[in-house]
Specification:
Helix content is 80%, strand content 0%. It has helices at residues 4-21, 36-61, 66-90, 94-114, 120-147, 154-177, 183-204, 211-232, 240-266.
Length: 267
């Protein structure tokens, strides 16, 4: 997008100044092996929140379930900040610490925009900052996974990524309805839909699945069939309240599934 280069330059400059200043940050501890799955889950949730914040901003800006989506917007920003601090204090990997500085600049800019009146210009910035936060959070997930010798946390990553994809899909769906009809919006939506369906098929066959996990995956499958047709025919639009409610229901169910995988790995 046209704002992206400007945003990247600004964030990199601010990050460099912050690192150069030697600001006092308490030295975090190295995560114990048993905590890696939990940290992957938390970092994975940051990916989801980066998209949920932007999605809620658009739904609120369009006046759709305004009370609910405004609360969702502010609650998601607060949760992102809370998780940000957990990761910062839990990991001493320098690459992760540097990435957190970068993400921190973007999240603060996003929080500022959330307090301003909705406008298409601000909405464009929100889209770009949400991409920055997503990319940085994904980098942290990958680094945490690399710390694991057994790589069992990969299934936590995959399930957790489904949470993000639900919000990413809804973000681009409502962005299109808000007037962002560019090629990128449509392609990002289609790609996210395809990735969600492929990952769901993989999770459904996972050897780690318990009867409880299978039950939740079946629920996701049923909910997906309700809204997938809207995502795949975004140009037609319509029924945004159903899209909002069903997408968030899928996200909540995937959050349960991700937690169940974490518990299965810890047992």
């Amino acid at each position: 997008m046209k704002n992206l280069n400007k945003i990247l330059i600004t964030l990199l400059s601010l990050a460099a100044l912050t690192l150069a200043s030697g600001s006092s940050i308490a030295k975090p501890a190295s995560p114990e092996t048993g905590n890696l799955a939990t940290l992957v889950d938390i970092a994975g949730k940051q990916r989801m929140l980066s998209q949920k914040i932007a999605k809620a901003y658009f739904f609120y800006g369009q006046g759709i379930r305004a009370d609910k989506t405004r609360k969702q917007l502010l609650d998601s920003i607060n949760e992102f900040n809370h998780n940000f601090q957990i990761i910062r204090k839990s990991v001493d990997d320098q690459g992760i610490q540097d990435m957190l500085v970068y993400i921190g600049m973007a999240k603060d800019e996003m929080a500022t925009l959330a307090k301003q009146p909705y406008s298409k210009e601000n909405a464009s910035l929100v889209l770009d900052y949400s991409e920055t936060m997503l990319e940085g959070s994904q980098d942290i997930v990958s680094r945490l996974e690399d710390m694991s010798k057994l790589k069992k946390e990969a299934i936590v990553n995959l399930a957790g990524r489904q949470r993000m994809l639900t919000q990413r899909i809804a973000k681009y769906y409502i962005a299109y309805q808000a007037g962002f009809h560019d090629h990128n919006t449509v392609e990002q939506l289609k790609t996210a839909v395809k990735e969600f369906e492929e990952a769901h098929a993989t999770l459904s066959k996972a050897k780690l699945n318990t009867p409880e996990i299978r039950k939740e995956l079946i629920k996701v499958d049923r909910l997906w069939k309700v809204v997938a047709k809207f995502y795949k025919d975004v140009e037609r639009g319509g029924l945004p309240v159903i899209v909002l409610a069903t997408t968030d229901n899928i996200m909540t169910t995937m959050n349960t599934i991700t937690r169940q995988y974490v518990e299965a790995l810890s047992s």
